[in-house]
Amino acid sequence: MIDIRDLRTNPDQYRQAAKQKGIGESSVDAALKLDEQRRELLVKVEEGRAALNVKGKPTPEELEKLQQTKTELAELEAKLAKIEAEFDDQVGRIPNLLAPGTPEGGEEDNREERRWGEHVKFEFEPKDHLAIAEANGWIDFESGAKVAGSKFYFLFGALVRLEVAVTQFVLDLLEQEGFVPVMVPNMVSTKVASGTGYLPRGEERQIYKIEGEDLNLIATSEMPLTGLHADEIMDAKNLPKVYVGYSPAYRMEAGAYGKYSKGLYRVHQFNKLEMYVFCLPEESAKWHEKLVKLEEDICQALELPYRVVRIAAGDMGGAAYEKYDVEYWSPLENTYRELMSCSNVTDYQARRLGIRYRDAEGKPKFVHTLNGTAAAFSRLPIALLENHQQADGSVHVPLVLQKYYGRDSL
């Protein structure tokens, strides 16, 4: 949620950001109009309440006037409640502002920042991850569909051990950087889901709703981690708070099948390690750089060629102020594909969920929040299998994983 006082003062920057993102452009003017109506009604409501606050026993004439005032006040309060609900809805549609230098345009305008690693050159006919995994009995989509439906799957043997090895490696690396490992609830309330921006309006729903309950399956541990400090006022001395959440991720992926979706690339359930930061506003840019660097460190340790791209405005969600993706090199597709993302959300989520700190003067202010993928066990196995496959059908295990996996190959 955006700062309404800033919206009143600088409406054009919100109009511009909404236009560039393609989200909530009409809501800016609608919210401003409703805000004006809301403030006018608030004055009248306060005047009405003050008029009812009389001392002593009223005369019959005064009593009649008080009853009329009470009736009028009830009508004003009902009207105010309706206006405030409409106002909250419109403000909730307005996206976060954009960082300076954000590329304009859509996905095709994402800007490459840098690359790392040599593209592997095979002296044999390489296979895609699904062919490798099925040939070795490591994955079974057919049984997954029988049990739960399309795009669910079973993992076996080496792929399970590989995921555990990567998890242990990443947790060790991030703990050395001060991140606290967290296992989170796999469901969140609608308030938390909406507060994190995972209930987009006017778009196909991407998270699973638990029928009959105010609960949703999480799409990432970012959702419960954001809610961890909801409605709290933290001590600035205790910031930043940095976590790495480990959880399943459940995603409907509705309407996504026109995009690349073979095998593990787009599935309904996978495990994920997610970095999450609560920090002072003046430190969020620094933390964003650090999170992206940690993502690069992980890719380099796993011997995966990659590039970092800055995401264009039209390819960003409503919450993000600035976003980078790390894309792995796909030797089968001869292109880069998304592996990790990292967003600075500034105070957008904190405002929606009431996450604040006290500054040096004791005044409560909103924290900034950031999130970044540490390891998503949908796309990461693709990158590892396809880049590290060997001529004899085995798969090389990167050196940093060998002490966890126990061997140098799958």
Tell me, rounded to a whole number, the average pLDDT. 91
Architecture of the largest domain in CATH? 2-Layer Sandwich
Order of helices and strands: HHHHEHEHEHEEHEEHEEEHEEEHEEEHH
How many domains? The number is 2
Largest sheet: 8 strands, mixed
Cross-sheet strand order for the largest sheet: 1-11-12-13-16-10-9-4
- The CATH homologous superfamily name of the largest domain equals Bira Bifunctional Protein, Domain 2
Shape: elongated
From the 3D structure, determine the CATH topology of the largest domain: BirA Bifunctional Protein, domain 2
Low-pLDDT runs of 5+ residues are none
Helix content: 40-55%
Please identify the top-level CATH class of the largest domain. Alpha Beta
Distance between the termini: 47 Å
Structural class: alpha+beta
Count of discrete alpha- or pi-helical segments spanning 4 or more residues? 13
- C-alpha Rg (nearest Å): 26 Å
Number of strands: 16
Which range does the strand content fall in? 15-25%
